[in-house]
Queue: 4 jobs
Job 1
Amino acid sequence: MIDARLSDDRTIAGRADLLIIPAFTTAGGGAEPASSWPYDDDRIARLLARDKAFTGEAGQVSALLISDHLPPVLAIGLGRLDRLDADALRRGAMAAAQTSTARGAVVFALDLATDMAVRAVTEGFLLGRYDYAKGEDTAFTVLARALDERAFAIGRIAATRANWVRRLVETPPNALPPRAFADILVAEAKKLGITAEIWDDAALSAHGFGALQAVGSGSRNAPLAVRLEHGSGTKRLGLAGKGMTFDSGGINLKRKLTEIAWMKADMAAAAAVAGAIFAAVELGANPDILAILPIAENMPSGSAVRPGDVVTHPDGRRTEITDTDCEGRLILADAIALLAKSDVEAIIDVGTLTDGGGVGTALWGCWTNDAGLAKTMTDAGGRAGEPGWHLPLRAEYERLLASKVADIANYSLDAGDSGQLAATYLHSFAGEKPWLHIDIGGCAYLELASPPWPPGATAKPLRALLQLLLDRST
């Protein structure tokens, strides 16, 4: 657990085990500290000048600078001052945190009096200090001239909840089967006063979740759904998140060993959706939400769903399953269909379905039937440091999912699969409700490092969803 604090007492700097100083690139190609603060002279500048290799470029970290008159100092590069933004601060703080492990009391001297700076530095350092195996114990203080307690709280809680999600996603699948995952979510919800319940097989049947039941039928661990409800219900947002605690591909077994090895991460979306709701409540935002989180294991066995089987969803529509490894959209279709019949203003679903629309590991892709909803979501993501990209939803792709025995197929045997086709499929269950699908298949879990992110879970798009919930609560 990280003890994170905000202070304007600059004497704390002298007692630090490590003092982190932001620095910028100068016009001449050198580096200079953001200011002399927390001191009143040029001692930081003189110390920084000793590291000739440090130029202050964004993401660069200096050598550890030692002086008889200062605590150990670590400078982080933020690039050019006129191009400074929250992302540069956040990434710099992440890099500094990763470099400053095994230090006791860490102080980040921040002479940038904006809420953006306080939030970004707090968030970045806590995200950077995450370590599944070793934990994140340290004492961290943001030392700032201007105390913005709200910005600090948002950064602290957003990062703490993101690390909570990362830890869940990294948990071995034998330690987190569907029931254990559902129990954790419900226990967290109840601690925060959020209405929560687990739907077992009887409840799934009563609500018409035929696809979820089919997807989970091959595992000895029964499928479940978690329902979360909070707020007044006057402007309710419907949320859904894919919660596959392990995805073998089912009968259409995954062929790529490097992919199946980390399919414990296929529940990342459900964890991120729940984490965003929990963080919003912890921040006192009173989010008005109804969330449905379908949870299952996709395993091959004699009882597993087969290619060619037909399942029925809560709205009575039927899907022909042409690929059992396209199971995420099946269970999300159940949730979306139920939300479409509920009293919600709009629906946002999140899943690790495909490569996220081909936008790489830094972005999530989204598709929608409402351009305004997409703009609201991508704007929130941009401000939260989790940017997304709005991709077009094209009606002509619908023919690729035609079925002779059901209303729709979950996979195109002719065209293969893509984020576009997954979104086309899910769109058909939203009815007339404004709806947005977020695909985090490319960014929720990194097989390789993408600095400043190490390999592993990222908790995306928790911070983007949290920003959206905060915006809706103002």
Note: The domain at 172-472 is CATH 3.40.630.10 (Aminopeptidase).
Job 2
Amino acid sequence: MKWWIKQIWIIPGVVILLFSCEKERFFTGDSVSLTFSCDTVMFDTVFTTIGSTTKYFLVKNPYSKDLKISEIYLAGGENSNFRLNIDGLKALQLENIELPAGDSLYVFVEVTVDPQNQNSPMVVKDSVVFITNGNFQDIDLVAWGQDVHLISGEIVQTQTWINDKPYLVYNSMLIDSMQKLTVDPGVRVHFHRNSTMYIMGSLEIHGTLEEPVVFQGDRLESEYAEIPGQWGGIYFLNGSVGNIIEYLEIRNGTTGLHLGNLYSEKEPPDLTISNSIITQMNFAGISAINAKIDASNCIIADCGFYGIVLTTGGEYEFNHCTVSNNWKYFNRVTPTVLITNYYNLNDTALFTGELEKATFGNCIVYGDIETEIGFDIIKSGGSFQYYFDHCLIKVNTSEVDVSDPMRYNNVFINNAPGFIAVDSMNFQLDSCAFALDKGSQEIGIRFPNDILGNSRTNDPGPDIGAYERLDDR
């Protein structure tokens, strides 16, 4: 037999041998099943036109032999709202994916929801399909979408935001000089990462007990619920006057409210704020540079550096406010209330101002470090007037002299207030709380109702802080 005829007979044998090896290498049973880390990937509310966070699930080969996944694809194909990344490859569809014995691969998922011009949330669905040895398996994808009023880098003129669908601030915004933004009860405003509301004109927020206004980040997944620093804050610039805030909840930003700026000859900003809650700010709940603030029935809690920081002078009055700080993300060493008459700008410029007034009446200032009230004074800064009246405060008395009657009147030192549950941000007072009935009657009459609308005038004395406990004692 000629040599080339022998080669022809050898070639089919080699093909058969290779095919047999391929079959031996991969598990070929018709009952094969991949295992998954979940059966549904669920996205909480995703705002239209704005992409979601990235979620993922694992796909595992549970067998002692390699598997060949014939196909992985999005059931919705090119029309899907979802996007996939399969082990580092962005694709709607992949074929012949080899998965070694006992090994896993990651499938990453994102979603963008198209606007539907409707106020109520909508649901968007799809699935990721896996075909292995002819067997079909899939993972459901579900996202709740919400249309929004998109405010992207805009200079806002006089207008009113109504409670129909949420507002999303993207790339920050500015309320123009001499213009006013009015926010109706129940409005929800979400801020994209690093976005801030700047005010040169004026802001009026008219929330109610039943329908508070809420400012927070735009990530609504449960894992973001308590993460600070997701957006900037509300910044009132010099020249911004006539600002009023009622029943506003501010969550998870960098600085909740900031008033004032350096290098400005304009009138310092002013703010009257009541019945409002500021929590989990990366830097401060309220910060001010030579501004004017009148605050009552407010709660400021769990901020990275300061609950309240007042610098470079100004005029401030806080009544029936609860300032509590049990920051958990790093070791806080700064007092939750700091009052100074200067501002040191990066050691390049020193600004000073007269502290005409910083009055705290029937307030709680408490936290988890030894001293929660601090003062930093430059004598050349001029007047430095502060006063604590019927307040419960936490201080090291060797550092803070509370015996001066010109500064302190009927203050209570280092007694735990008696909050119901600090860990769950419930700063109402329990039935045995130290702060019960210890407030000034005069101040209580000026602010006869607490943050929940409960009367302060029906028992022997008003409770210290933003909440009045009503049960029989």
Note: The longest helix spans residues 3-25.
Job 3
Amino acid sequence: MSVIVLLIVASLAVAAGFLGLFLWAVKDGQYDDDTTPAIRILFDDDKRRKRRSSSSGPVGPPDGDVRL
């Protein structure tokens, strides 16, 4: 019978730990942006690839921004 009490106490401690971590993540702003991850796949990565390939020579404005 004492094993059951020990398991209940341990499970409540683990549940309280996960609840604390969840509340910390919410307070820290982990779940603030729920729209961008869903549409991130739709963004075009060509700009990023061209910036990496153009880093060998000056192609574009002096500030380093690549215009398409």
Note: The chain has a mean pLDDT of 79.
Job 4
Amino acid sequence: MDMEVKQLRNTVVVKLDGEMDMLMAEKLKKDIDQRLLNKPIANLIIDMEKVTFIDSSGLGAIIGIYKKINAVGGGIAMLGTQPHVKKVLVFSGIDKLVNIYSNECDDIMDEFR
């Protein structure tokens, strides 16, 4: 799985590509943890358009990151989840913590204003 991360002020955008398994979950958690130590993150946007699979370690990473960002008053949004990945997110209850959007739209930024 590939991961591209960009940060603009207090917003981080992560583009994931491939399977969100144990290896990618650890990579994502470490990157976000490091960024939280260096600069405040108020908003995290995870582009899931190219994610083909997510397992329990991926779900755990998202929940852990949510807790850390929520603790500093921030929020998380997910974009472009494939139907089978979105089904896992909904069944796990993550959709109650994280806003999930089918694609990029201006409404997402309203969420963080």
Note: The chain has one domain: 2-111.
